[in-house]
Amino acid sequence: MSKMTSKRSTRFDAQSVTIAPESDRQRRLRIARLSLDGLSLGDAFGERFFGIERHGGFDTVIADRALPAGPWAWTDDTAMAGCIVETLAAHGHVNQDDLAKRFASCYVAEPDRGYGAGARAALHAIHEGASWREAAGALFDGQGSMGNGGAMRAGPIGAFFADDLDVAAEEARLSAQVTHAHPEGQAGAIAVAVAAAQTVQVHSNRASRFGRYAIEAAIEYTPEGATRAGLIRALRLPFHVDIATAVVALGNGSAVIAADTVPLALWCAARHTDRFEDAMWTTVSARGDRDTTCAIVGSLVALAVGQARLPDEWITRRERLPH
Ligand SMILES: [Mg+2]
Fold first, then answer.
1. Gap from CA of 43 to ligand 1 centroid (Å)
2. Rounded to an integer, what distance in angstroms lies between the CA atom of residue 199 and that of residue 206?
3. Dihedral of CA 165/288/83/19: which sign?
4. If you measure from the C-alpha of residue 111 to the centroid of ligand 1, how many angstroms do you get, rounded to a whole number?
5. Residue 4 CA, ligand 1 centroid: distance in Å
């Protein structure tokens, strides 16, 4: 009792402390950071499995669900998604010039986070003073990148603009355009952001089957093309098929393009909206570009399960986030 009393005496007088109500920007950022948290857990978890595959025993680790030893270092997916959350915090929308600068400085500070060759070239050029339009437009002989880099970092954008799918889609397109001039590179980002926004909307209404709704919304907003065609296949693919069948139908990111990454990721997320760990184990078992597929799935499923149901053990093993 005396212990309690002494503890009480050191506490603030609750009545003298005014807690400011959460602003609209703060509320949006809280949801975006939840998505980023899930994204980085997926990114860092998935990345470990490249090494596991090289050293053998991949199937046993998957079957046993043996968590890889920590620390799990996060990669470019987390670095760039963190830049997006920072620009949203600073501007309340995707400011492309600001975002390009943040991407370039993150890259120059830590170039060995696993950036793809195209991203390295563009971000180096931006850091050297090129405009992002010029740098992104020059990739792939002037066609621009159709890679999955726009999609891997788009979950937090959908979370931030969860109340308006039109805005989520447009802001995602703007965020991708900074590095991905090709329409398919932007389509991947639109699909993921709309799925994230829809996940927040449907989850807050406590509707069932909301994973399917997320794919349906993504199809509605994603422009015609290979990514959208893959999303339609994902919507039709039953959840009971095994992962190898899903990979044949939807890809697994091994071509590192939006069209072979995003459909599988949205299918895995839709299949496991109720448990973060299940979503991750299914996704990583598809192999392919596993840091990025797991990052996308993590950015979505975190929004469905909420902060309290992100596994503590995983958070402990993941390298700390700088943001
Ligand atoms: Mg990566």
1. 7
2. 10
3. positive
4. 12
5. 49
How many angstroms is it from 247 CA to the middle of ligand 1? 20
- How much distance in Å is there from the Cα of 64 to the middle of ligand 1? 25
Please report the pLDDT score of residue 6 as a whole number.
Answer: 42
Cα 322 to ligand 1 centroid, rounded to whole Å: 16
Helix (H, G, I), strand (E, B) or coil at 306: coil
- If you measure from the C-alpha of residue 8 to the centroid of ligand 1, how many angstroms do you get, rounded to a whole number? 48
Determine contact, residues 99/135, Cβ cutoff 8 Å: no
Give the model confidence (pLDDT) of 126-183 as tens digits.
999 999 999 999 999 999 999 999 999 999 999 999 999 999 999 999 999 999 999 9
Q: Would you say 264 and 251 are in contact if contact means Cβ atoms under 8 Å apart?
A: yes
| Residue entry with tokens 């990739």 | 139
**What digits encode the pLDDT tens for the residues 245-276?**
999 999 999 999 999 999 999 999 999 999 99
The pLDDT-based confidence of 16 (bands split at 50, 70, 90) is low
Give me the residue spans of the domains in the chain: 23-317
Going from the Cα of 77 to the center of ligand 1, the distance in angstroms, rounded, reads 5
The pTM of the full predicted model, rounded to 2 decimals, is 0.93
Cα 298 to middle of ligand 1, angstroms: 13
Two tokens, residue 307: 């902060």
CA distances from 321 to 48, 130, 136, 227, 315 (A): 17, 29, 27, 30, 10
CB 258 within 8 A of CB 114: no
23-317 sits in which CATH class?
mainly alpha
